[in-house]
Structure formats: structure tokens, C-alpha cells
Amino acid sequence: MTAATRAFFNARGYCEVETPYAVPAPGEEVHLPVFGLNPPGLYLNTSPEFAMKKLLAGKAGNIFQLARVWRNEAPSDTHAAEFTLLEWYRPGATMDDLIAETMALLRVLLPPEISWRGNTASLERYERITVAQAFSRYAGVDILATAEDAPALAAQAGVALRAGEDWEDLFFRLLLDRIEPQLGRKHPAFLTHWPAAQAALARRDPDDPRVAERFELYCCGLELANAFVELTDAEEQRARFMADRARRHAMGGPDWPLDEDFLAAVGKMPECAGIAMGFDRLVMLATGAARMSDVQWLPRP
């Protein structure tokens, strides 16, 4: 599958890159635990995203990477602390372009019909659904009208707020409990246009600033990928990072220097779209493996 992946991107004019695994700033996501190295000051990267975007700012063009990454979370059937991300970026691409390219890759790497954990999905077609549509259909709520209002969201969803639970916590609780199990059951599903509060490194939709041009991909109920039409406004990215850092620090999370080189690169990046795909999970779907450890050469005990 790695050979077929490389052939796919080489045929499309992509350049394979390799970026550092030990980095001084492993990202700014609030809830993503990291592995620190000794001596301190370096961390195992959680994604090659920052480094690859610096290459984009240097006019590297279409690039991809099969990157080893680390996330300090408890192992499960679908997660390992060390795994492989397939990440690629395409200057000039729109969300539509990236979705089409992702489906083309799936049809190269996966059988026409996938069976996994009792679900069977056909690659003959795919589904697109916005986050707002998904929450309305499966949770009975207007997620955009209740944005940042946890009591209103809880009331619409018919659930009680848990102690200390804010809007983002409840958003992800409903996403995990009610939305994700319904996605990709018969065909791959692209969950698009996330609320602006969940934009991460995606730009806001010019036609509706309440949402961001972000999508996640699901197949047989398994999350496979996360993608952005990339934000190229360095000041907005800095403001998002500062808000994330404040939240992480308030929760007692670790601290590291802000990646100023990355923020400088954001303002020099071309308009582009990029995606990170869990490669081990893709192999699980291709083989029908029930556990990620079944598809890793030497899984961690």
C-alpha cells in the first residue's frame, strides 16, 4: 500500500518530502497530549503539518509525506501512540478538488466494497454532508444557532450538561455519540463546513463566516482523515494560537515556544488545500483488520 501510494502521488506530479520528527513546537491543539524528549526543549511531532507548510511557503509545490507521528494517548483498537500519517498539500486546490483526489486515492488503495466491523461500504459513490446538516439530522439541533452557547445546545439535544462541560466539550460528545456512528456506513462520507470555533488551521468560508472550509472523512463508521482549505492569514492564525495556548495553560497543559517560523510561513503560503489521513486505519479497512496492532509490523506491547 505504501508503494501504491507513492505511485499515485508521483503520477500526479507530487514531490515526496521528509521533515523532522523531533521539533521544538509540536502544535497548538488544546487536547492533544505529546511526548517530550530529554534533554527538554524538543518533542516528538504529532503531525508534519507545520514543517510541510513551511515548505509550501518556500514554493515547494505539490508535496506529500508518509510521516511517523506520536500522540501520548492510551492505545485502543483504532489508535496507537505511534502511527503513520499520510499528509499531502496541493497549491491552488479547492475543497472540491481535494475531495475528488481523496476518492481517487481510496479507489486505488481499497477494494470496491469494504467490510469492517459489520459495516459494508461501496466506493462507487460518496456522500457529502455539512456539520450543520449532520447535527440537524442525527441530533435534532441547530448547531450554528447555538454556537458557543452550551446550555442552548444541551436543551436542543435533550441532554444535561456535565460538570465543567463547555460548548466545545458538548459539541464533541454529541459528535462522537450521535453523528460519527452514522457516517460512512454505506459509502465514504465527507463531513464538511465545521463551525468557525472548530476551524483549527482552516480558513473561514468566504460565503458564510460562521463555518470553516474543513472536512473529515469517514468510512464504515471509522474516521480516516482531517482536511483544510488552508488559512493564509498570519494574524488570524496567531490569534487562534494564542486562544488555544491560553486554554491549554488554564487546563495545566505543557508550554513551549510559539513557532514564529511557522506563523511567518502562513502569510507566505499559496492558496492551497491539505489533508492528513491515518494510514494505519486505511490499511485496516483494506484488510478487514479489527485492531491497529494487526497492521503494524512491531506494535508496541
Primary descriptors:
BirA Bifunctional Protein, domain 2; globular; nine-stranded mixed beta sheet; 9 helices; alpha+beta; 301 residues
Secondary-structure element order, N to C: HEEEHEEHEEEHHHEEEEHHEH
Radius of gyration: 19 Å
Low-pLDDT segments, ≥5 res: none
Instruction: Name the CATH architecture of the domain at 2-126 and 222-294.
Output: 2-Layer Sandwich
Q: Can you identify the CATH superfamily of the domain at 2-126 and 222-294?
A: Bira Bifunctional Protein, Domain 2
- How helical, in percent, are the residues? 25-40%
Query: Strand fraction band?
Result: 15-25%
Q: What name does CATH use for the topology of the domain at 2-126 and 222-294?
A: BirA Bifunctional Protein, domain 2
Distance between the termini: 24 Å
The biggest beta sheet reads:
9 strands, mixed
Looking at how many chains there are and whether they match, the oligomeric state comes to single chain
General shape: globular
Q: Tell me, rounded to a whole number, the average pLDDT.
A: 95
The first-level CATH class of the domain at 2-126 and 222-294 is given as: Alpha Beta
The structural class is alpha+beta
Count all strands and give the number. Answer: 13
Tally of helical segments: 9
Word description of this protein:
The structure is a single chain. With 301 residues, the protein is of the alpha+beta class. The chain has a domain at 2-126 and 222-294: BirA Bifunctional Protein, domain 2. Helices cover 32% and strands 24% of the residues. The strands form three sheets. Strands 1, 4, 5, 8, 9, 10, 11, 12 and 13 form a nine-stranded mixed β-sheet that branches. It has a two-stranded antiparallel ribbon with strand order 2-3. β11 and β12 form a beta hairpin. The longest helix has 17 residues, at 234-250. The radius of gyration is 19 Å and the shape is globular. It starts with a helix and ends in a 14-residue tail after the last helix. The model has no long low-confidence stretch (mean pLDDT 95).
